[in-house]
User: Which sequence fits this backbone?
């Protein structure tokens, strides 16, 4: 958030934030977005356009929302891996999807977005939803995305950005700072976690800024689409 910390300290602090809220993370998403996060993730997966036979990597995808959507769209015929640094989030995801109809064959691995435990050029589609701003070294994570993607592979990112449409920005900023932390305290008993999340949104890059960083990491043709006036944004690019 707004607190200045050493890089290695940020990783530990973010870990503690998500460990604290893992088992109520999906509930909080529904409450705080009035269910809109489901629409945003549907739009992300539409951009990803997952196909049977593809290798799909969802980074920072602990509770499995994106993986579940990809599995259903491909009728379980894609190879989908969820990679997350937080074991509590992974466990919450495994538990949530266990036995769900139309969801099978998802692999769950512990790993850091900055140092992915996958070989070069091994992935057709890389996705990251609401995780990039929590990475300590964002440009390093983007380079890792480029490394593991095959030539022609797609990078897709769903994220909050600071580039909310001018008329909406004061309202959204007020919601982040005045509503999110008390809601987080009420539901998860950890208002500080949601204070961090609110502040991290306001400090994150705007749409052109993130597109520039994506291309600097070795990906080409970065584009984006604003959702709900830029409150959420899907960026995508290709490995050449």
Assistant:
């Amino acid at each position: 958030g707004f607190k200045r910390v050493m890089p290695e300290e940020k990783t530990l602090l973010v870990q503690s934030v998500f460990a604290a809220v893992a088992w109520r993370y999906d509930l909080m998403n529904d409450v705080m977005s009035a269910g809109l996060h489901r629409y945003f993730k549907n739009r992300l997966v539409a951009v990803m356009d997952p196909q049977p036979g593809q290798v799909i990597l969802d980074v920072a995808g602990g509770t499995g929302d994106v993986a579940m959507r990809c599995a259903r769209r491909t009728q379980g015929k894609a190879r989908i891996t969820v990679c997350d640094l937080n074991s509590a989030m992974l466990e919450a995801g495994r538990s949530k999807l266990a036995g769900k109809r139309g969801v099978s064959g998802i692999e769950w691995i512990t790993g850091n977005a900055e140092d992915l435990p996958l070989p070069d050029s091994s992935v057709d589609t890389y996705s990251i939803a609401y995780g990039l701003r929590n990475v300590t070294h964002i440009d390093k994570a983007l380079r890792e995305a480029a490394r593991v993607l095959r030539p022609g592979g797609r990078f897709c990112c769903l994220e909050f950005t600071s580039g909310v449409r001018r008329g909406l920005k004061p309202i959204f900023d007020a919601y982040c700072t005045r509503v999110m932390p008390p809601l987080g305290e009420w539901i998860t008993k950890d208002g500080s976690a949601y204070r961090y999340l609110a502040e991290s949104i306001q400090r994150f890059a705007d749409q052109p800024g993130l597109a520039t960083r994506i291309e600097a990491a070795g990906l080409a043709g970065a584009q984006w689409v604003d959702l709900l006036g830029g409150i959420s944004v899907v960026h995508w690019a290709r490995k050449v």
Q: What stands out?
A: The radius of gyration is 17 Å. Residues 20 and 74 are 33 Å apart (CA to CA). The first strand starts at residue 55 and ends at 59.
